[in-house]
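From the pipeline queue, job 12 of 40. The input is one protein chain; the requested action is below.

Action: predict structure.
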Amino acid sequence: GSKHGKVTSLDIPGCGSSICDLHRGTNASINIGFSTNVTKVTSVVHGILSGIPVPFPLDNPDGCKNSGLACPLPSGKQYKYNTNIFVRNEYPKLRVVIKWELKDQSGEDIICLELPAEIVDAKKSETLKFHPRSLTVL
């Protein structure tokens, strides 16, 4: 679970009322607001298919670079992590749970959340902003 941080906001363009559409051939954006006290941030993403976590490689897993964060992150402040992931055209159209973790310098979770998603063909999407209460924060 989240030992070293607390999710304060989440913004994912392309999310509907209950599921996030990940459009093939496009970038999917995620913006996570959180509080913490760490020196390093690493992003780890898995797609959970039939209960099995499958690693989802990121072009930039270093959460301290090109993400809006400047490490170290002292306590008492709010931070915003921003990144994009490319949804490849080769990915099959299916429903998946995205497990997104930000880990600290010791490999422990700063935050961990799970998002229901569906890989779909590219099309115009909506933006949904919701509060952390509607997430599964582990």
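Job complete. The longest strand covers residues 109-120.
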